[in-house]
Amino acid sequence: MLLVESAAEEPRVLCIIQDTTNSKTVNERVTLNLPASTLLKKLFEDVASKVGYVNGTFDLVWGNGDNVTDTTPIDQNSDKTILDAGFEPGKKNFLHLTDKDGEQPHITSEESGTTDDCVQDRFIGPLPREGSVGCTSDYVSQSYSYSSVLSKSDTGYVGLVNQAMTCYLNSLLQTLFMTPEFRNALYKWEFEESEEDPVTSIPYQLQRLFVLLQTSKKRAIETTDVTRSFGWDSSEAWQQHDVQELCRVMFDALEQKWKQTEQADLINQLYQGKLKDYVRCLECGYEGWRIDTYLDIPLVIRPYGSNQAFASVEEALHAFIQPEILDGPNQYFCERCKKKCDARKGLRFLHFPYLLTLQLKRFDFDYTTMHRIKLNDRMTFPEELDMSIFIDVEDEKSPQTESCTDSGAENEGSCHSDQMSNDFSNDDGVDEGICLESNSAAERISKVGSEKVCLKNVLGLVNSLLYELFSVMVHSGSAAGGHYYACIKSFSDDQWYSFNDQHVSKVTFFFFTSSTNAYMLIYRLKDPARNAKFLEAHEYPDHIKQLVQKERELEEQEKRQREIERNTCKIKLFCMHPTKQIMMENKLEVHKDRTLKEAVEIAYKLMDLEEAVPLDCCRLVKYDEFHDYLERSYEGEEDTPMGLLLGGVKSTYMFDLLLETRRPDQVFQCYKPGEVMVKVHVVDLRTESVAPPISVRAYLNQTVSEFKQLISKATHLPAETMRVVLERCYNDLRLLNVSSKTLKAEGFFRSNKVFIESSESLDHHVAYTDSHLWKLLDRHANTIRLYVSLPEQSPGSQFRRSVYQKPSGDSGNLDEASERVKGPVGNMKSVEAILEESTEKLKSLSLQQQQEGDNGDSSKSTEASDFENIESPSNEIDSSAENRELENQIQISDPENLQSEERSDSDVNNDRSTSSVDSDILSSSHSSDTLCNVDNAPIPLANGLDSHSITSSRRSKANQGKKETWDTAEEDSGTDSEYDESGKSRGEAQYMYFKSEPYTADEGSGEGQKWLMVHVDKRITLSAFKQHLEPFVGVPSSHFKVFRVYASNQEFESVRLNETLSSFSDDNKITIRLGRALKKGEYRVKVYQLLVNEPEPCKFLLDAVFAKGMTVRQSKEELLPQLREQCGLDLTIDRFRLRKKTWKNPGTVFLDYHIYEEDINISSNWEVFLEILDGVEKMKSMSQLAVLSRRWRPSEMKLDCFQEVVLESSSVEELKEKLSEVSGIPLENIEFAKGRGTFPCDISILEIHQDLDWNPKVSTLNVWPLYICDDGAVIFYRDKTEELMELTDEQRNELMKKESSRLQKTGHRVTYSPRKEKALKIYLDGAPNKDLTQD
User: Fold this and answer.
1) What is the reported pTM?
2) How confident is the model at residue 929 (pLDDT cuts 50, 70, 90)?
3) Of residues 483, 1015, 1028, 1308, which has the active-site annotation?
4) In this predicted model, what pLDDT tens digit does every residue of 267-299 receive, in sequence order?
5) Parallel, antiparallel, or unpaired for β 1068-1074 and 1040-1045?
6) Which regions of 1003-1118 does DSSP assign to beta strands (E)?
7) Is residue 167 among the annotated active site residues?
8) Among 782, 807, 778, residue whose Cα is nearest residue 1012
9) What DSSP state is assigned to residue 411?
10) For a FRET experiment, which of 632, 804, 1086, 1106 has its CA 20 to 30 Å from that of 746?
């Protein structure tokens, strides 16, 4: 790890300063680690220097640290030390940099070295570890930096911005930039714009990046132009790759781009070496070989099968060329001996490149855990590496006549980090630094190596292959993710620097003796004749000089633009359009030095008011949009700068601006600070109307009496008889009856709403809460408007149309409204009486049908259980005749005979049910509602009703997790009884306002559909609301359902009768559908048939109703007639069973004596399987286990049908015995495996023999890896002595086609392909080819 100069021994104070003056700097922090004796003046100077502000133009206040209560600015001119001022050594001292006197800090003329894009911490001085302030450790985990982060003026180098996870790219780019030979060669290449698009030219974008790295005044620059030239989109920034892999891919791309140019062979000249891959026969000495090229040498950290890592790079290099013996089954066929012989196989280096790249292979695979791992073993490496001991002298001298092939890809063994991130674990980062070892490490070299050195001394080759280290790329983290940065030595001053994304820091050496995270090492050959220096500015080619000038101009332009942005006020602007009368919203951007008059002109054009109103009829006023409050106007300040009016340039303002308009004959009102806005509504008790508001401005210190006088002038109503009611919040209506009280004491705020009434009626003498005024205001506050869609041909709708031929508007007589709920009034009396009579007769008819049901005539009630069309009752109808007619039209079934009641609800086609997955999704947001997709066309039934009545209403399942607890609360049923125990309607318990009138809906809402516009008190219960709708629907409230319509035409059934309409709001839509509503303790259940041996094993049958306390046998009895009539299944009660359904998987078998809610958890819109039995029910107790077995016949390549096997225990031995009984396979030859996935656990017959986990080594079924604890598990079994059929290629292809076709229908794949890591690619044409045939 790199060390820094030791800090002073006196206590140090850690200060963390957050710049809160601008939205773009609010996330920036400046970290200072200062001696405790530092003066406050020096603190301000340091902060000003580092953030680029003029000292004295900003304040520092205590931030949100521990035990901080003082919010006053710190005295800048004090002679106190920071210790005396309250700063604490050993703790983090948080400070906020704020505006001074409402003005933003002034920016220094010099470049601060910070870009808007960089939001990382700025750091000054060595940062101590947590809890040890004052120590010399300098590790910064937040930014992966381990040294003082210096500005460019100190280091002279520019960082690179990390786009997201591009630290690996930044490390490589900085290394290439710091390589003189590569940078100089890149500068000599000239881009021809006529031949290529500059955006997609990789060499040109690298040129631009290098020029910016060399000349920019910024702290860090972006790499987006370079990655765009690679053909990458923004998603690539979130993919971390291996830096060695990137190096190889980038070099390949550059070679392709540089073809037929002077730089065509640049990569090979700098980075390419040669080695010999040989095999030597140990009997005759014959050697076969080939010459390969390489760009890097991959060195193993830890030998295969060993727990001991190599101690140094030299040892790893020796291991790299160490030959292996091919013997035994691995013998080599010698062409000279004409037989297999023992041989020696190995590699010899023939030529080393000018720039030597060593990759330390730290990523490996652990075959024990089957996971990727990173090897953090220590491995030393020298600052100077002598490679002459590794060269093969004889091969170097021998002629090389054979053609060379680049097999570096085979040898490099690059490892990829899977989905790496910038975060890394401290456990893996024990040593974040670089290790250099002294030349004494050569003592570890073997005796053979020493002999080679002596030989090379004789040949005069010593020092010709001496390399110096100049770049180390470090990976901190684990195999799952981490962070790359580079430590590079500058050849200009021989100084080491850390290039860590945006941060560039000087390393004031020395090194530890080893490293655990160094990943790539790059050495340069020490050869004075070849070692180049960086080109000076005067040596640049002309095209580079032009590029430098161009980039400087662009940077200066960006700087000016940033300066403008820093001085631009951005604030929300509102305007009520004078003709359209709609509130418009926009953002006003105005320079802080622009005057108010100029800002009005800008806002006037921004709101496009040129044709609506003259400019001199507009002004800007201070506005609070949230409270709809005009705070103040700016009279006489037309020439005042906006920066002064708005309190400086800020990231956000606590207020807005309103562009106010007037007519030419009007005069603007003066709005003074401290005034409050009051919207006054005049109430007329006689007409029971509330007038639209008029605005009045008042002061909080005014009394109620003075306020009444103010209102009297505005409304021309007498103040003496005036009653003023303040609505402080929802449903809080307060009468202001103490004249001497101030408005502030009464609870007035910025924006207020009051109601006034000035009549001389007797209502003044009634207690306020009993007065007509209070009732009217209470109704006004709680009344909502709903649009109700009635079912087609509903009996009561035509009556209502005749009554409400003339709409009465929003207001009406309160007493009439009261009677409208209680009973008939005026000219409505006869109609209301008839409707009430009809309802009573329906109820009496219900009782009559119940008695008939008790007499056993269930079949009759079943056949007539569907609702028929009900004609409007006539004014003159004979009582008995009417009863007979109603009896023919409506048959109300016996509530105990559930199948007859649900007839109309379940007479639908089978494919309109909802899967449990859909239900689970819906349950999270609508726990008490039922989804209905009204986009599906209604299906006409025999009785003229549409099928949406029940089957389209899909209730989300209750929380799946609760099912296993066998404990469902009463309210989870989603229903409440409409009547209490005494039989009295709950809706009659409290009087609530209800008023309705016919309404013509918009086009597209359904031809011939009838609508009501209802004004109703939202405190009414759903039960009472339904009872008020009974006359319009024409059936009792228990026989229709209420659906709330949401966006996208989705409908959710409202079923909680005791809940109020408080969740509804104005203009909500409601749909009424015919069908019996559930009673308390009842649940709607969807019944599916389980067909285990059919291609589609899950078939919807019908909807049923199960009740709490009902046994399974009773529910089966209820289902029998419905199955016979609706599904054509004539069954006896012992011929079928019910069982749990989870998605498409069959589960627990329900026994006849089980009770719903006690033994079986049941929820709304529950789903069950009905399974027809082949014989007598074998399941008698819960201790048994029913599994579905299926035999695999490998010799015939086929699967038999499912057979149920009932076990008395979870013993594997018993399972094998049962399988042996049903199949005839000897017990000792039985092998079994558990099926995977959703029932029926389909798998290709080409894969089943080897892909399943056959014959698991367990003794019971309820343990890993089987976990068979419930009925319905799928077991495949086979005879282990049966051989697998051998298939020809034609047979295999034909079988694969059939299996593919079969499994695609069921949604299963023929082959399993794990998700592959995304490959790193650079696209030479600038964009990826969308080849759908490729992975």
Assistant:
1) 0.49
2) very low
3) 483
4) 999 999 999 999 999 999 899 999 999 999 999
5) antiparallel
6) 1010-1017, 1040-1045, 1050-1054, 1068-1074, 1082-1090, 1098-1107
7) yes
8) 807
9) H
10) 632
